[in-house]
Design a protein that fits this description.
- 48% of the residues lie in helices and 18% in strands.
- By secondary structure, it is of the alpha/beta class.
- It folds into two domains: 263 residues, Glycogen Phosphorylase B (Rossmann fold, 3-Layer(aba) Sandwich), CATH 3.40.50; 206 residues, Glycogen Phosphorylase B (Rossmann fold), CATH 3.40.50.
- The strands form three sheets. An eight-stranded mixed sheet has the order 5-6-4-1-7-8-9-10, sandwiched between helices.
Length: 472
């Protein structure tokens, strides 16, 4: 059944610019969120509300733009032009890094964060203000289509549902949290008013979706501890997935085949691959140290094994992220200086936004290293096995949401235990072909069965079960 949906996210599915001839250009958005929501556009009547990021986005703000997704499905796009300073406070002070670091348990608590007057100002004049801008735009859309359901996304928009609920008591509201949910004590890093407002904002929804039972339990516990409310009936576990058909098609594309040939030209006998953003939560530095320990223990594998690290530079305007990128580069250089021989470097580090090469690397891994400190899901662990051609083994952090689904067939690691990660790399590289094949095929079968359509169906069914009188 097609239904009217208002999708709300910070980043939209497309951004606009101007070409050299002065004509308007459109660049399709990437990332797991935009890709996942594409199925909503395909099967439902969607109006998508997102922040105006570029100058051309801002020129289009305030009007509805008729757009189409990659498969030709139509949708309406409404871009919100926030005050520039407010958006900077919202995004670069509160959402990233503060909320991201809280939800991924990244703060070094004896030293950071520093919640000072500047943060309080950024909260009130940035995060609250931008959420209010989103809420006002949602309210305007609901005035046009009052029977539409509103589908909020992620940590950027925790306050907007309460703001909409106050304007539209009978609106159908749903929020999906794409990041981990920590236990309540970690939320006490934030000032009381902020942590309460976040939980209260989410509780204004009819449904709150999270990737795993682990994150769902933590959310219920946090709401009980910080608000005194029971969130059990509002919550649903719905692990996000990928479009396996799309990845199979991508794997055969000219861009991916060209990138794969480049990898094949220089690849060693065995290849350990990691594909990540340069985000502290991805645990890249410890991954390099674990590979160093493996090389220490296995001199016979020197020149025969290598690690290909394809990293997308992330949020470099935020000091914590820029510093972590520097740490990544220093660690790779240190390991290479120690072990490299003529014609062989153990770690090939590439920092670029190059999705075709990432897919090519997916096809070629013997070991896929996903050792995240914490991850809401981690779609790399689902994407790569779909197209892999070498019976590759997935080494997977127990703190990645994907582990709840794939842990049975992956090699589980503690993200803080570099010795354990080195042992997992050793076991993966030594594993018999038959076992490798069975594990990979099991992951593929699970991802194909638990696809994006199932994710959206679970969430929309949960929303349908909520009657208007139960809304708060």
């Amino acid at each position: 059944m097609r239904r009217k949906l208002i999708v709300v996210s910070n980043r939209g599915p497309v951004s606009y610019g101007r070409g050299s001839d002065g004509s308007r250009t459109a660049k399709r958005g990437g990332g797991g969120l935009v890709t996942a929501l594409r199925s909503l556009v395909q099967y439902h009547d969607v109006t998508w509300i997102a922040s105006a990021i570029t100058e051309e986005d801002r020129a289009l703000a305030g009007e509805a733009v008729d757009e189409t997704s990659r498969d030709g499905s139509p949708y309406r796009l409404r871009l919100v032009a926030h005050d520039r300073q407010a958006y900077d406070w919202y995004y670069n002070v509160v959402a990233n890094p503060m909320l991201w670091f809280v939800q991924h348990s990244l703060w070094d608590l004896p030293y950071t964060p520093r919640v000072d007057a500047a943060f309080h100002h950024a909260w009130a004049e940035g995060y609250v203000a931008v959420n209010e801008s989103f809420a006002a735009t949602v309210d305007a859309e609901l005035a046009r289509t009052p029977d539409a359901a509103v589908f909020f996304h992620d940590y950027h928009l925790y306050l907007a549902p309460r703001m909409v609920r106050e304007r539209r008591p009978d609106a159908a509201l749903m929020h999906f949290v794409h990041v981990p949910w920590p236990q309540p004590d970690y939320w006490r890093v934030l000032p009381r008013e902020a942590r309460r407002a976040i939980h209260d904002g989410l509780m204004a929804n009819d449904v709150v979706g999270l990737h795993t039972e682990r994150w769902r339990r933590n959310f219920i516990y946090s709401v009980r501890e910080l608000l005194g409310d029971d969130a059990t009936a509002k919550t649903v576990t719905a692990p996000i997935s990928v479009d396996s058909t799309e990845f199979v098609e991508l794997a055969r594309s000219e861009a991916v085949l060209s990138a794969e040939q480049e990898i094949l030209t220089g690849r060693p006998e065995k290849l350990v691959v990691r594909v990540d953003r340069t985000d502290p939560s991805k645990n890249i530095v410890r991954g390099f140290r674990a590979f160093e320990l493996y090389l220490d223990a296995h001199p016979d594998m020197h020149r025969r094994v290598g690690m290909l690290a394809l990293l997308d530079p992330s949020r470099q305007e935020i000091p914590e992220y820029a510093e972590y990128l520097g740490a990544i580069q220093r660690e790779a250089r240190r390991v290479n200086d120690r072990f490299q021989q003529s014609g062989w470097r153990p770690i090939e580090l590439e920092i670029a936004d190059d999705f075709p090469k990432s897919v090519a690397a997916y096809k070629q891994f013997d070991v896929l290293l996903v050792n995240a400190i914490f991850d809401g899901m981690n779609l790399v662990a689902k994407e790569a096995p779909i197209v892999n051609e070498r019976d590759g083994v997935v080494v997977l952090s127990e703190n990645a949401g994907a582990h709840a689904e794939l842990g049975e067939w992956a090699l589980t690691v503690n993200p803080f235990d570099v010795d354990g990660q080195a042992a997992a790399i050793e076991r993966a590289l030594a594993m018999e072909t038959g076992e490798r094949h069975e594990r990979l095929e099991a992951i593929r079968a699970h991802v194909r069965e638990h696809d994006l359509s199932r994710w959206t169906d679970v969430l929309l069914a949960a929303l349908d079960r909520v009657a208007a009188p139960t809304r708060s």
